Automatic annotation (TrEMBL):
Keyword terms: DNA-binding, Repressor, Transcription, Transcription regulation
Coiled coil: none
InterPro entries hit by this protein: DNA-bd_dom_put_sf (IPR009061), MerR-type_HTH_dom (IPR000551), MerR_fam (IPR047057)
UniProt protein name: MerR family transcriptional regulator
Gene3D superfamilies: 1.10.1660.10
Keyword Transcription regulation: yes
Record domain HTH merR-type: where: 12-80
Top-level division of the source organism's lineage: Bacteria
Length: 106
């Protein structure tokens, strides 16, 4: 039995619905994809599919763009956040291992 993906991360929403929810144009949404700020999946027919998490990310991106932040700066910020998140997860797992097995690893 596999681990179920959280509903917020399931890529099931079409670009038309994303457009309606965000107020962004198709072109803006595709541009953010081209700039590697969001990562929709493609259906068998080639349509883009987005998640609720993608929609939240698009809203944050749009706000930053409106505030004058450049897309390359947003991408750098996202990369830093991912790096910090991975470090936090590693630290949490190490803490759980230490608690479970009474070991310490530098």
């Amino acid at each position: 039995m596999g681990i179920e993906e959280p509903y917020k991360d399931k890529k099931v929403i079409t670009i038309g619905v994303v457009r309606e929810l965000t107020g962004l144009s198709d072109r803006q949404i595709r541009y953010y994809e081209e700039r590697k700020l969001i990562f929709p999946v493609r259906s068998k027919g080639g349509s883009r599919k987005y998640s609720f998490s993608d929609i939240e990310q698009l809203m944050l991106i749009a706000d930053k763009i409106e505030d004058g932040v450049q897309t390359h700066e947003i991408r750098q910020e996202l990369a830093r956040e991912i790096k910090h998140h991975k470090a936090d997860v590693r630290s949490m797992i190490q803490g759980q291992l230490n608690a479970q097995f009474g070991t310490r690893r530098p």
